[in-house]
Design a protein that fits this description.
432 residues, alpha+beta, Heat Shock Protein 90, five-stranded mixed sheet, protein dimerization activity
């Protein structure tokens, strides 16, 4: 079925109008700001390096170099803020090394990698920002001027004198003037097409600039690695302390109290036997003591299972099958383990599966779940899939944040794909 002519015309006009949507205008504003800011930073940084380098044999030269690096870092902060607010590009702030005193801060600036990467960024950004500025001029400015040619041709022209005659020529291609109807439709349509393509052109023109900012103004791979290790180490210490407190509390409030009760009842049994008490009273005390003993054993088994499930000694596939059998929902387990991972990796995978299945039973409303585990080429991949209502997200109070911290202790990753309406797919990857 063919679309009505009015709808086609509206669609044609809507595409160029998309070039002036809020998101496109934000990118346009960034392209307009980036080049002047980059040129100012380039000149100041280059002058500071040249003068500071020439005077580097003196104390003044070292201070000037440190001031240049500090200025590049400040410029990088401004560029990160602009990229975050206008481009939606979130660049992490590089770590700041600790420094004491004025001389310590100068030393940190001159020896810090983040500062010299910022200097390199200040020297290189004019060559990438100019691409976005050229795209603005070519796509937006020239496109708007050409699209408005019928309105601007009275002012946007040049005068041609041919003998005694004077002609005003606005656009001329191969000797053909496009100033009269219907010829001026040609530049108008070309301008609208250029405006329709302007967001695409500008986005690709700014791609090198975005890549340069991300590579030079954020932390390096080594710094990210160190930061991750520091965070996971701190989290591991906190988890260990919390585990010890939980074990102490469980032993004190549960098992210890039951063993004390067991000892008291055994004392009563001895006294009753010595006093030749009636049989029914004696059996009642024995039953109570036996119940306390059984409950103490159950508490100890539960405590041990929370530390390291004994079933893991038989392999991760067996442990997951046992976990699925105890789940409140029907769970299908599919395993393909080529080589058995390290015990620590198996333990993390088991507890991740346990937490994810508990979340599924509690929050998803799903009728069942599927656990898939593959272990090949030194990588264990655990996937938990359910057909519930979805909407799960890391950091949304679903317990996924704690799991992410747990898997990061072994350089693992956790991803969650859970659109509203489901399904929810959580994938844990653990290298070993």
């Amino acid at each position: 079925m063919r679309r009505p002519t009015a709808a086609l015309a509206l669609d044609v006009l809507r595409r160029p109008a998309a070039a002036f949507a809020p998101k496109a205008l934000a990118v346009l504003l960034h392209a307009l700001i980036a080049l002047p800011l980059a040129l100012v930073g380039f000149v100041l940084t280059l002058v500071g390096l040249v003068v500071g380098g020439a005077l580097s044999v003196t104390t003044l030269g070292l201070w000037l170099l440190a001031l240049t690096v500090r200025g590049a870092l400040a410029l990088g902060s401004v560029q990160r803020a602009l990229a975050r607010s206008l481009l939606g590009l979130d660049i992490e702030e590089p770590p700041t090394p600790p420094a004491r005193g004025v001389l310590g801060r100068r030393r940190a600036l001159l020896l810090g990698r983040a500062g010299w990467r910022a200097v390199g960024c200040a020297l290189a950004t004019p060559f990438t920002a100019v691409l976005g500025f050229a795209a603005v001029l070519g796509a937006y400015a020239y496109g708007a001027q050409t699209a408005l040619h019928p309105l601007l041709k009275r002012w946007n022209h040049h005068t041609v004198r041919d003998g005694d005659s004077v002609r005003h020529v606005s656009i001329e291609v191969l000797g053909v003037q496009l100033d009269s109807w219907p010829r001026w439709l040609i530049p108008m349509v070309a301008g609208l097409a250029l405006l329709a393509a302007a967001p695409w052109l500008l986005r690709h023109a700014l791609a090198p600039h975005r890549a340069l900012l991300a590579a030079t103004l954020g932390p390096s791979d080594a710094e990210r690695r160190i930061r991750t290790l520091e965070e996971t180490r701190a989290q591991a210490v906190d988890d260990a302390a919390a585990t010890l407190r939980r074990i102490e509390r469980d032993l004190h409030d549960g098992t210890q109290a039951r063993l004390v009760g067991l000892a008291m009842h055994l004392t009563m049994i001895r006294e009753l036997v010595g006093a030749d008490a009636d049989r029914e009273r004696l059996l009642a005390v024995v039953d109570t003591a036996q119940g306390n003993a059984k409950q103490a054993i159950a508490d100890l088994r539960h405590l041990v299972k929370g530390i390291h499930p004994p079933v893991l000694d038989q392999g991760l596939d067996t442990a997951l099958a046992t976990l699925a059998a105890d789940s409140a929902l029907p769970v299908e387990v599919v395993t393909d383990i080529e080589a058995r991972p390290a015990p620590a990796v198996e333990s993390i995978a088991y507890f991740c599966a346990a937490e994810l299945l508990a979340n599924t039973a509690k929050h998803s409303g799903a009728a069942g779940a599927t656990v898939t585990v593959t272990a090949r080429a030194g990588l264990l991949r655990l996937t938990v899939h359910d057909g519930g209502r979805g909407g799960a997200a890391i950091g949304a109070g679903s317990g996924l944040t704690g799991l992410l911290t747990r898997v990061r202790t072994v350089d693992g990753t956790l991803t969650c794909d859970s659109p509203p309406g489901g399904p929810t797919v959580v994938t844990v990857e653990l290298p070993y």
